[in-house]
Amino acid sequence: MTNQIFNKLAKKISKKKHVAYVNARLFDPESGLDEKGTLLTEGSKIIDFGKNIATPEGAEIIDCQGHLLTPGLLDIQVHFREPGLEYKETIETGSKSAVAGGVTTVVCMPNTKPVIDDPSIMDFINDKSEESAYCNIRAYGAITKGQHGKKITEMALLKKAGVSGFTDDGLPVMNSLVMRRAMEYCSMLDLPICQHAEDLNLSDGGCINEGEVSTRLGVKAVPNASEAIIVERDLLLLELAPKCHYHVLHISTYQAIDAVRRAKAKGLNVTCEAAPHHFMLTDEAAKDYRTFAKMNPPLRSQKDIEAIIEGFKDGTIDAIATDHAPHDQESKRVPISQAAFGIVGLETMLPLSLNLVHQGHLSLKDVLARMTYKPADIIREPAGRLKKGARADLTLIDLDMEWEIRPEAFFSKSKNSPFSSFKTKGRAIRTVVGGQTVYELKN
Protein backbone atom coordinates (compact mmCIF):
# COMPACT_ATOMS: atom_id res chain seq x y z
CA MET A 1 0.00 0.00 0.00
CA THR A 2 1.38 3.41 -0.92
CA ASN A 3 0.82 6.74 0.74
CA GLN A 4 0.88 9.83 -1.46
CA ILE A 5 1.57 13.15 0.23
CA PHE A 6 0.96 16.56 -1.37
CA ASN A 7 1.98 20.03 -0.29
CA LYS A 8 0.90 23.19 -2.08
CA LEU A 9 3.58 25.69 -2.96
CA ALA A 10 4.24 28.07 -0.08
CA LYS A 11 4.23 31.71 -1.11
CA LYS A 12 7.49 32.22 0.74
CA ILE A 13 10.32 29.85 1.59
CA SER A 14 13.19 30.64 3.92
CA LYS A 15 16.21 31.62 1.90
CA LYS A 16 18.41 30.12 4.60
CA LYS A 17 16.80 26.68 4.71
CA HIS A 18 19.13 23.93 3.48
CA VAL A 19 18.00 20.56 2.15
CA ALA A 20 20.51 17.84 1.29
CA TYR A 21 19.44 15.08 -1.10
CA VAL A 22 21.93 12.37 -0.20
CA ASN A 23 22.65 8.97 -1.70
CA ALA A 24 21.20 10.09 -5.02
CA ARG A 25 22.00 9.04 -8.55
CA LEU A 26 22.52 12.54 -9.90
CA PHE A 27 21.41 12.64 -13.51
CA ASP A 28 21.55 15.66 -15.80
CA PRO A 29 20.53 14.95 -19.42
CA GLU A 30 22.19 18.05 -20.87
CA SER A 31 25.68 17.67 -19.36
CA GLY A 32 25.62 13.88 -19.26
CA LEU A 33 26.22 13.84 -15.50
CA ASP A 34 25.44 10.40 -14.06
CA GLU A 35 27.04 9.75 -10.69
CA LYS A 36 26.19 8.93 -7.12
CA GLY A 37 26.33 11.94 -4.82
CA THR A 38 24.52 14.69 -2.96
CA LEU A 39 22.55 17.69 -4.16
CA LEU A 40 22.22 20.66 -1.84
CA THR A 41 19.56 23.35 -2.00
CA GLU A 42 19.24 26.62 -0.14
CA GLY A 43 15.78 28.12 -0.21
CA SER A 44 14.53 27.80 -3.77
CA LYS A 45 17.94 27.35 -5.44
CA ILE A 46 20.41 24.56 -6.14
CA ILE A 47 23.71 25.61 -4.55
CA ASP A 48 25.89 22.52 -5.07
CA PHE A 49 25.92 18.90 -6.14
CA GLY A 50 28.45 16.15 -6.66
CA LYS A 51 30.30 13.32 -4.95
CA ASN A 52 31.80 15.07 -1.93
CA ILE A 53 29.38 17.75 -0.82
CA ALA A 54 29.48 18.91 2.79
CA THR A 55 26.07 19.05 4.48
CA PRO A 56 25.50 22.27 6.47
CA GLU A 57 24.62 21.91 10.11
CA GLY A 58 20.86 21.81 10.62
CA ALA A 59 20.08 20.90 7.01
CA GLU A 60 17.10 18.67 6.30
CA ILE A 61 18.37 15.32 5.03
CA ILE A 62 16.47 13.41 2.36
CA ASP A 63 17.85 9.95 1.61
CA CYS A 64 17.27 9.21 -2.06
CA GLN A 65 18.24 5.55 -1.56
CA GLY A 66 20.14 5.41 -4.82
CA HIS A 67 17.24 6.54 -6.97
CA LEU A 68 17.55 8.85 -9.97
CA LEU A 69 17.49 12.58 -9.16
CA THR A 70 16.89 14.65 -12.28
CA PRO A 71 15.89 18.17 -13.18
CA GLY A 72 12.12 18.59 -12.80
CA LEU A 73 10.13 17.39 -15.80
CA LEU A 74 8.27 19.81 -18.08
CA ASP A 75 5.08 19.26 -20.05
CA ILE A 76 4.68 22.06 -22.54
CA GLN A 77 1.18 21.14 -23.71
CA VAL A 78 -1.62 20.72 -21.18
CA HIS A 79 -5.24 21.79 -20.87
CA PHE A 80 -6.24 22.79 -17.34
CA ARG A 81 -9.65 24.11 -18.51
CA GLU A 82 -9.65 27.10 -16.18
CA PRO A 83 -11.26 29.57 -16.66
CA GLY A 84 -14.61 28.36 -17.95
CA LEU A 85 -14.57 24.55 -17.88
CA GLU A 86 -13.69 23.88 -14.27
CA TYR A 87 -15.93 20.80 -14.12
CA LYS A 88 -13.32 19.04 -16.30
CA GLU A 89 -10.13 20.31 -14.64
CA THR A 90 -8.77 23.25 -12.66
CA ILE A 91 -5.34 24.70 -12.13
CA GLU A 92 -5.38 23.07 -8.70
CA THR A 93 -6.38 19.56 -9.80
CA GLY A 94 -4.30 19.69 -12.97
CA SER A 95 -1.16 20.78 -11.15
CA LYS A 96 -1.74 18.11 -8.50
CA SER A 97 -1.89 15.55 -11.30
CA ALA A 98 1.31 17.04 -12.74
CA VAL A 99 3.42 16.71 -9.61
CA ALA A 100 2.13 13.17 -9.06
CA GLY A 101 3.71 12.45 -12.44
CA GLY A 102 6.99 14.17 -11.58
CA VAL A 103 6.20 17.28 -13.64
CA THR A 104 7.32 20.59 -12.13
CA THR A 105 6.40 23.00 -14.96
CA VAL A 106 3.46 22.94 -17.35
CA VAL A 107 2.33 25.19 -20.19
CA CYS A 108 -1.44 25.57 -20.45
CA MET A 109 -3.20 25.92 -23.77
CA PRO A 110 -5.26 29.07 -24.44
CA ASN A 111 -8.53 27.42 -25.52
CA THR A 112 -10.22 28.27 -22.24
CA LYS A 113 -13.50 30.18 -21.88
CA PRO A 114 -12.72 33.00 -22.34
CA VAL A 115 -9.70 32.37 -24.57
CA ILE A 116 -6.30 33.60 -23.41
CA ASP A 117 -6.25 36.37 -26.01
CA ASP A 118 -6.05 39.31 -23.62
CA PRO A 119 -3.55 40.15 -20.85
CA SER A 120 -6.36 40.20 -18.28
CA ILE A 121 -6.94 36.45 -18.79
CA MET A 122 -3.24 35.76 -18.33
CA ASP A 123 -3.34 37.87 -15.17
CA PHE A 124 -6.19 35.69 -13.91
CA ILE A 125 -4.19 32.52 -14.56
CA ASN A 126 -1.14 33.94 -12.79
CA ASP A 127 -3.23 34.95 -9.77
CA LYS A 128 -5.04 31.62 -9.65
CA SER A 129 -1.76 29.75 -9.93
CA GLU A 130 -0.25 31.64 -7.03
CA GLU A 131 -3.32 30.80 -4.98
CA SER A 132 -3.79 27.09 -5.75
CA ALA A 133 -1.01 25.50 -7.84
CA TYR A 134 1.30 22.67 -6.89
CA CYS A 135 3.75 23.33 -9.74
CA ASN A 136 4.99 26.14 -11.98
CA ILE A 137 2.16 27.24 -14.29
CA ARG A 138 2.93 28.82 -17.64
CA ALA A 139 0.53 29.43 -20.54
CA TYR A 140 0.45 30.18 -24.22
CA GLY A 141 -1.47 33.12 -25.57
CA ALA A 142 -3.76 32.72 -28.57
CA ILE A 143 -2.48 33.63 -32.02
CA THR A 144 -5.82 35.10 -33.06
CA LYS A 145 -8.61 36.84 -31.18
CA GLY A 146 -11.09 34.29 -29.89
CA GLN A 147 -9.12 31.66 -31.83
CA HIS A 148 -11.26 32.60 -34.80
CA GLY A 149 -8.28 32.63 -37.17
CA LYS A 150 -8.88 36.15 -38.46
CA LYS A 151 -7.31 38.91 -36.38
CA ILE A 152 -3.95 38.55 -34.62
CA THR A 153 -3.89 39.18 -30.89
CA GLU A 154 -1.82 41.91 -29.22
CA MET A 155 1.14 39.59 -28.93
CA ALA A 156 3.51 42.11 -27.37
CA LEU A 157 1.05 42.85 -24.57
CA LEU A 158 0.50 39.13 -24.01
CA LYS A 159 4.25 38.62 -23.77
CA LYS A 160 4.43 41.38 -21.18
CA ALA A 161 1.67 39.55 -19.26
CA GLY A 162 3.90 36.46 -19.20
CA VAL A 163 2.86 34.07 -21.97
CA SER A 164 5.39 31.45 -23.11
CA GLY A 165 4.46 31.56 -26.79
CA PHE A 166 1.43 31.62 -29.06
CA THR A 167 -0.96 29.01 -30.43
CA ASP A 168 -4.59 28.54 -31.39
CA ASP A 169 -4.29 24.91 -30.27
CA GLY A 170 -7.48 22.97 -30.66
CA LEU A 171 -7.70 24.74 -33.99
CA PRO A 172 -5.15 25.48 -36.71
CA VAL A 173 -4.56 28.89 -38.23
CA MET A 174 -6.01 28.07 -41.62
CA ASN A 175 -5.47 31.47 -43.27
CA SER A 176 -1.96 31.56 -44.73
CA LEU A 177 -1.69 35.35 -44.64
CA VAL A 178 -2.72 35.50 -40.99
CA MET A 179 -0.15 32.81 -40.17
CA ARG A 180 2.56 34.68 -42.06
CA ARG A 181 1.82 37.93 -40.22
CA ALA A 182 1.81 36.09 -36.89
CA MET A 183 5.21 34.59 -37.69
CA GLU A 184 6.58 38.01 -38.58
CA TYR A 185 5.23 39.44 -35.33
CA CYS A 186 6.73 36.58 -33.29
CA SER A 187 10.10 37.20 -34.95
CA MET A 188 10.34 40.40 -32.92
CA LEU A 189 9.25 38.82 -29.62
CA ASP A 190 11.61 35.84 -29.29
CA LEU A 191 8.78 33.47 -28.43
CA PRO A 192 7.64 30.40 -30.37
CA ILE A 193 4.55 30.24 -32.51
CA CYS A 194 3.02 26.80 -32.12
CA GLN A 195 0.71 25.14 -34.60
CA HIS A 196 -1.97 22.51 -34.21
CA ALA A 197 -1.42 21.21 -37.74
CA GLU A 198 -4.71 20.17 -39.28
CA ASP A 199 -6.38 21.03 -42.55
CA LEU A 200 -9.97 21.36 -41.37
CA ASN A 201 -11.30 20.89 -44.87
CA LEU A 202 -9.59 17.53 -45.19
CA SER A 203 -10.47 16.44 -41.67
CA ASP A 204 -14.10 17.34 -42.34
CA GLY A 205 -15.38 16.23 -38.95
CA GLY A 206 -13.42 12.99 -38.93
CA CYS A 207 -13.03 11.27 -35.58
CA ILE A 208 -10.24 8.68 -36.00
CA ASN A 209 -7.37 7.99 -38.39
CA GLU A 210 -8.18 7.17 -42.01
CA GLY A 211 -7.39 3.51 -42.56
CA GLU A 212 -8.63 -0.03 -42.12
CA VAL A 213 -10.10 0.62 -38.66
CA SER A 214 -12.16 3.63 -39.76
CA THR A 215 -13.41 1.64 -42.75
CA ARG A 216 -14.49 -1.27 -40.54
CA LEU A 217 -16.22 1.06 -38.09
CA GLY A 218 -17.86 3.08 -40.86
CA VAL A 219 -16.94 6.48 -39.38
CA LYS A 220 -15.58 9.69 -40.84
CA ALA A 221 -11.79 9.69 -40.76
CA VAL A 222 -8.81 12.03 -40.79
CA PRO A 223 -6.03 11.33 -43.34
CA ASN A 224 -2.34 11.87 -42.61
CA ALA A 225 -2.33 14.53 -45.29
CA SER A 226 -4.46 16.78 -43.07
CA GLU A 227 -1.51 17.28 -40.73
CA ALA A 228 1.26 17.16 -43.32
CA ILE A 229 -0.24 19.80 -45.62
CA ILE A 230 -0.37 22.42 -42.86
CA VAL A 231 3.17 21.64 -41.69
CA GLU A 232 4.50 21.87 -45.26
CA ARG A 233 2.64 25.18 -45.78
CA ASP A 234 3.92 26.64 -42.53
CA LEU A 235 7.49 25.68 -43.30
CA LEU A 236 7.22 27.57 -46.59
CA LEU A 237 5.89 30.57 -44.66
CA LEU A 238 8.77 30.21 -42.21
CA GLU A 239 11.19 30.84 -45.05
CA LEU A 240 9.48 34.23 -45.42
CA ALA A 241 9.95 34.93 -41.69
CA PRO A 242 13.20 33.08 -40.92
CA LYS A 243 13.73 34.73 -37.53
CA CYS A 244 10.53 33.17 -36.22
CA HIS A 245 10.66 30.03 -34.06
CA TYR A 246 8.00 27.66 -35.38
CA HIS A 247 6.93 24.71 -33.22
CA VAL A 248 4.69 21.82 -34.29
CA LEU A 249 2.45 20.58 -31.49
CA HIS A 250 1.74 16.84 -31.07
CA ILE A 251 3.25 15.74 -34.39
CA SER A 252 1.85 12.35 -35.40
CA THR A 253 2.52 11.46 -39.05
CA TYR A 254 5.56 10.23 -40.91
CA GLN A 255 5.02 12.84 -43.65
CA ALA A 256 5.02 15.78 -41.21
CA ILE A 257 8.07 14.41 -39.40
CA ASP A 258 9.93 14.12 -42.68
CA ALA A 259 8.97 17.71 -43.53
CA VAL A 260 10.42 18.95 -40.23
CA ARG A 261 13.55 16.87 -40.79
CA ARG A 262 14.10 18.49 -44.19
CA ALA A 263 13.43 21.96 -42.77
CA LYS A 264 15.99 21.45 -40.01
CA ALA A 265 18.53 20.32 -42.59
CA LYS A 266 17.93 23.64 -44.38
CA GLY A 267 18.64 25.52 -41.15
CA LEU A 268 15.09 26.70 -40.45
CA ASN A 269 14.21 27.45 -36.83
CA VAL A 270 11.67 24.68 -36.30
CA THR A 271 11.01 22.32 -33.41
CA CYS A 272 8.33 19.74 -32.71
CA GLU A 273 6.99 17.49 -29.97
CA ALA A 274 5.30 14.09 -29.81
CA ALA A 275 2.87 12.68 -27.26
CA PRO A 276 3.25 9.29 -25.54
CA HIS A 277 -0.07 8.04 -26.89
CA HIS A 278 1.18 8.64 -30.42
CA PHE A 279 4.26 6.46 -29.97
CA MET A 280 2.51 3.86 -27.80
CA LEU A 281 -0.82 3.17 -29.54
CA THR A 282 -2.13 2.75 -33.06
CA ASP A 283 -5.67 3.37 -34.26
CA GLU A 284 -6.40 -0.27 -33.38
CA ALA A 285 -7.01 1.05 -29.85
CA ALA A 286 -10.26 2.58 -31.17
CA LYS A 287 -11.43 -0.53 -33.01
CA ASP A 288 -14.36 -1.23 -30.68
CA TYR A 289 -15.62 2.36 -30.87
CA ARG A 290 -13.50 3.13 -27.81
CA THR A 291 -13.96 6.84 -27.23
CA PHE A 292 -11.15 6.95 -24.66
CA ALA A 293 -8.83 6.34 -27.63
CA LYS A 294 -10.22 9.32 -29.55
CA MET A 295 -7.90 12.30 -29.67
CA ASN A 296 -6.82 15.02 -32.10
CA PRO A 297 -4.57 14.36 -33.93
CA PRO A 298 -5.86 10.80 -33.94
CA LEU A 299 -3.89 7.66 -33.17
CA ARG A 300 -2.17 6.68 -36.37
CA SER A 301 -0.56 3.57 -37.90
CA GLN A 302 2.45 1.45 -36.93
CA LYS A 303 4.37 3.19 -39.71
CA ASP A 304 3.77 6.52 -38.00
CA ILE A 305 4.88 5.15 -34.62
CA GLU A 306 8.11 3.95 -36.22
CA ALA A 307 8.60 7.40 -37.77
CA ILE A 308 8.17 9.06 -34.36
CA ILE A 309 10.75 6.76 -32.79
CA GLU A 310 13.15 7.43 -35.65
CA GLY A 311 12.45 11.16 -35.22
CA PHE A 312 13.55 10.88 -31.60
CA LYS A 313 16.66 8.95 -32.58
CA ASP A 314 17.89 11.43 -35.19
CA GLY A 315 16.90 14.56 -33.29
CA THR A 316 14.02 15.63 -35.51
CA ILE A 317 11.56 15.48 -32.59
CA ASP A 318 12.70 17.74 -29.78
CA ALA A 319 10.28 17.13 -26.93
CA ILE A 320 7.72 14.85 -25.35
CA ALA A 321 4.46 16.54 -24.29
CA THR A 322 1.18 14.96 -23.28
CA ASP A 323 -1.56 17.20 -24.68
CA HIS A 324 -3.24 16.46 -21.33
CA ALA A 325 -6.91 16.93 -22.23
CA PRO A 326 -9.31 16.12 -19.39
CA HIS A 327 -12.99 15.44 -20.14
CA ASP A 328 -15.91 14.48 -17.98
CA GLN A 329 -17.54 11.06 -18.44
CA GLU A 330 -20.56 12.57 -20.21
CA SER A 331 -18.30 13.93 -22.94
CA LYS A 332 -16.74 10.53 -23.60
CA ARG A 333 -19.42 7.92 -22.96
CA VAL A 334 -21.35 8.74 -26.13
CA PRO A 335 -21.14 7.47 -29.74
CA ILE A 336 -17.59 7.91 -31.05
CA SER A 337 -18.62 10.48 -33.67
CA GLN A 338 -20.01 12.69 -30.88
CA ALA A 339 -17.33 12.12 -28.23
CA ALA A 340 -14.86 14.81 -27.24
CA PHE A 341 -11.27 14.54 -28.42
CA GLY A 342 -8.50 14.00 -25.90
CA ILE A 343 -7.02 12.01 -23.03
CA VAL A 344 -5.36 12.83 -19.72
CA GLY A 345 -1.62 12.22 -19.66
CA LEU A 346 0.32 13.96 -16.91
CA GLU A 347 0.48 11.00 -14.53
CA THR A 348 1.49 8.58 -17.29
CA MET A 349 3.99 10.67 -19.29
CA LEU A 350 7.07 9.46 -17.45
CA PRO A 351 6.35 5.71 -17.27
CA LEU A 352 5.06 5.53 -20.85
CA SER A 353 8.09 7.44 -22.14
CA LEU A 354 10.43 5.14 -20.21
CA ASN A 355 9.10 2.33 -22.41
CA LEU A 356 11.32 3.78 -25.13
CA VAL A 357 14.26 2.92 -22.86
CA HIS A 358 12.96 -0.49 -21.77
CA GLN A 359 12.36 -1.46 -25.42
CA GLY A 360 15.86 -0.40 -26.42
CA HIS A 361 14.85 2.44 -28.74
CA LEU A 362 16.49 5.32 -26.83
CA SER A 363 18.87 5.88 -23.95
CA LEU A 364 17.65 7.18 -20.60
CA LYS A 365 19.53 10.41 -21.32
CA ASP A 366 17.74 10.89 -24.65
CA VAL A 367 14.29 10.29 -23.19
CA LEU A 368 14.74 12.55 -20.17
CA ALA A 369 16.30 15.28 -22.33
CA ARG A 370 12.95 15.53 -24.10
CA MET A 371 11.15 16.16 -20.83
CA THR A 372 13.70 18.53 -19.25
CA TYR A 373 16.03 21.01 -20.90
CA LYS A 374 14.82 20.59 -24.49
CA PRO A 375 11.20 21.61 -23.84
CA ALA A 376 12.50 24.28 -21.44
CA ASP A 377 14.51 25.79 -24.28
CA ILE A 378 11.50 25.79 -26.58
CA ILE A 379 9.52 28.01 -24.19
CA ARG A 380 12.57 30.05 -23.05
CA GLU A 381 12.22 28.74 -19.49
CA PRO A 382 15.33 28.68 -17.23
CA ALA A 383 14.69 25.09 -16.19
CA GLY A 384 15.49 21.48 -17.00
CA ARG A 385 19.10 21.43 -15.81
CA LEU A 386 21.05 20.49 -12.70
CA LYS A 387 23.01 23.70 -12.37
CA LYS A 388 24.34 25.77 -9.49
CA GLY A 389 22.10 28.77 -8.97
CA ALA A 390 19.22 27.19 -10.89
CA ARG A 391 15.73 26.95 -9.44
CA ALA A 392 15.48 23.76 -7.37
CA ASP A 393 12.89 21.95 -9.47
CA LEU A 394 13.69 18.24 -9.10
CA THR A 395 12.17 14.84 -9.80
CA LEU A 396 13.22 11.70 -7.92
CA ILE A 397 12.49 8.58 -9.97
CA ASP A 398 12.41 4.92 -9.00
CA LEU A 399 13.33 3.34 -12.32
CA ASP A 400 12.60 -0.17 -11.10
CA MET A 401 9.13 0.35 -9.62
CA GLU A 402 6.60 -1.79 -11.44
CA TRP A 403 3.01 -0.65 -11.25
CA GLU A 404 -0.31 -0.77 -13.05
CA ILE A 405 -1.95 2.33 -14.43
CA ARG A 406 -5.36 2.85 -12.81
CA PRO A 407 -7.12 5.98 -14.11
CA GLU A 408 -9.65 5.86 -11.28
CA ALA A 409 -6.75 6.67 -8.92
CA PHE A 410 -5.56 9.70 -10.92
CA PHE A 411 -5.48 13.06 -9.16
CA SER A 412 -6.77 14.78 -12.27
CA LYS A 413 -10.46 15.66 -12.02
CA SER A 414 -11.01 13.60 -15.20
CA LYS A 415 -10.11 9.94 -15.81
CA ASN A 416 -10.24 9.63 -19.60
CA SER A 417 -7.24 7.45 -20.41
CA PRO A 418 -6.86 4.53 -22.83
CA PHE A 419 -4.03 3.11 -20.71
CA SER A 420 -6.12 1.51 -17.99
CA SER A 421 -4.49 -1.68 -16.66
CA PHE A 422 -1.24 -1.06 -18.56
CA LYS A 423 1.76 -2.54 -16.73
CA THR A 424 4.58 0.00 -16.46
CA LYS A 425 8.04 0.31 -14.93
CA GLY A 426 9.39 3.54 -13.46
CA ARG A 427 7.66 6.22 -11.41
CA ALA A 428 8.24 9.60 -9.80
CA ILE A 429 8.47 9.15 -6.03
CA ARG A 430 9.25 12.75 -5.05
CA THR A 431 8.64 16.05 -6.82
CA VAL A 432 10.34 19.26 -5.70
CA VAL A 433 9.31 22.71 -6.94
CA GLY A 434 11.40 25.73 -5.98
CA GLY A 435 13.06 23.81 -3.17
CA GLN A 436 9.77 22.54 -1.71
CA THR A 437 8.65 18.91 -1.75
CA VAL A 438 5.17 19.10 -3.26
CA TYR A 439 4.68 15.35 -3.81
CA GLU A 440 6.01 12.25 -2.12
CA LEU A 441 5.17 8.60 -2.70
CA LYS A 442 5.77 6.44 0.35
CA ASN A 443 5.47 2.67 0.55
Question: What fraction strand?
Answer: 15-25%
Level of helix content?
Answer: 25-40%
**CATH-level-2 architecture of the largest domain:** Alpha-Beta Barrel
CATH superfamily annotation of the largest domain: Metal-dependent hydrolases
Number of strands: 19
Number of helices: 14
How many structural domains are formed by the residues? 2
Q: How would you sum up the global shape?
A: globular
Summarize model confidence as the mean pLDDT. Answer: 96
| CATH topology category name of the largest domain | TIM Barrel
The separation of the N and C termini measures 6 Å
Structural class: alpha/beta
Q: Rg from C-alpha positions?
A: 21 Å
- The CATH class name of the largest domain reads Alpha Beta
